[in-house]
Amino acid sequence: MSISGPLADLLRLSRLVTDPAGRAGILSTVAEISAIHVGADASLVVLVDGERARVAAAYGCDGAAHDWQLDPDALGPELEDAVLLRCREINERIVVARSAPMISDGALFGALVVLSSVPERIGDDAMSLLAGIADMAAASLSAAMQFERLERVNAELRATRAALERTEKLRALGQMAAGVAHDLRNILNPITLYLQLAKRQVRAGDKEALESSFDEMASVVGRGMQLLEGLRQFSRQSPDAAEQMVDLDALAREALTIARPRMSSRAKAMPRVSEELRSPPPVLARSGEVVSAIVNLIANAQDALERGGTITVRTGTERGGSFVEVADDGPGMPPEVRDRVFEPFFTTKGEEGTGLGLAMVYSTMVRHGGTAELSSDVGKGTCVRLWFPPRRSSPQSS
């Protein structure tokens, strides 16, 4: 069924609202359909903008009408008289002007004015139609303004997002550098302690113990080299290059070996370490990153046990995957701290903390497709579990 007459033109007007290229033509379309369907000789669209009113579009009038400035308070009969007076200077045949306000959602946009040389043409039916067109025009103007506002906001959001992405890249680089420094410090600290121990062993002539210290230092240096190699691979955007099937029990023992010298040197009361390693299935992971993550967790647990206590390193299976967790029986965390521990730069250690340890642990688990889950209650200690998904094929074997 074809639509014609005023309804067809009103539909045409509604389509202009959603067309960015057509919105500029809304006012001229309103002026045109008003004159044609009301049966007037001419029409004007008067927009009110703050303290000024102006003719924004005209149909059937001399082009000079577009320059008319009108009194914004003179609506209704006063506006009609003012427009009629000016129009008669252009066309003496015009003898009547009628208007309808354009209002949408309580906002006054202006008025629609029609002019005729035959007063009888603008009767009650014509005025009802004019009022309907004015309402549609106001709704169209309101919608067009909303669309334009949304487009501006969307453009601003795109620009802001681009700026944030650039900032995030810089922040990520800063976090990565600080995180690597954090991990290297955890690795290098034991070397310093092993060197001090080696000096004492040299003086004591304990060759066997000295060789053991050198072996431990070689292992720690190797872990540092793996960390640097991981950084190089990360910078090359090849995060899977170093993945291999690894034994979480072995990684947990290695992390404990790295962390023990720090425990003996810094703790006011040496914490007791409990190993509950239950041989879970191997997982596909970067061993260096996982060991660094476990060392971070052990260091955090030690910091929580200033007066001694127990650190439990546990492995096992859950939800088809494997996990390693570090728990302590320290003071625990209140909810406001617990909810933020994985946020970068959030720390409760003051100047001694970087706020990157757990953030790096979290990002490590995200890269491995797993999860880092923390549970803690005040007075009941803290447990952080690193869960790895079920075994999948190694990239080298695919």
Short description:
The protein is an alpha+beta fold and 398 residues long. Helix content is 51%, strand content 20%.
Could you characterize the architecture of this molecule?
The protein is rod-shaped, with a radius of gyration of 39 Å. The chain is built from nine helices and twelve strands. The strands form three sheets. It has a five-stranded antiparallel beta sheet with strand order 3-2-1-5-4, with helices on both faces. The protein has a five-stranded mixed beta sheet with strand order 7-9-10-12-11. It has a two-stranded antiparallel ribbon with strand order 6-8. It is 51% helix and 20% strand. With 398 residues, it is an alpha+beta fold. Residues 233-241 and 393-398 have low confidence and may be disordered. The two termini are 61 Å apart. The protein has helices at residues 6-17, 26-38, 77-90, 124-204, 207-235, 248-266, 287-304, 335-338, 357-367, and strands spanning 42-49, 52-59, 69-70, 96-104, 107-116, 244-246, 272-276, 283-285, 310-318, 321-328, 371-377, 381-388.
The value of Rg in angstroms is 39 Å
Shape estimate: rod-shaped
Strand order of the largest sheet: 3-2-1-5-4
Mean pLDDT: 79
How many distinct folded domains? Answer: 2
Number of DSSP-assigned strands: 12
**Helix count, DSSP H or I runs of 4 or more residues:** 9
Distance between the termini: 61 Å
Features:
single chain; 398 residues; alpha+beta; Beta-Lactamase; Heat Shock Protein 90; 2 domains; 9 helices; 51% helix
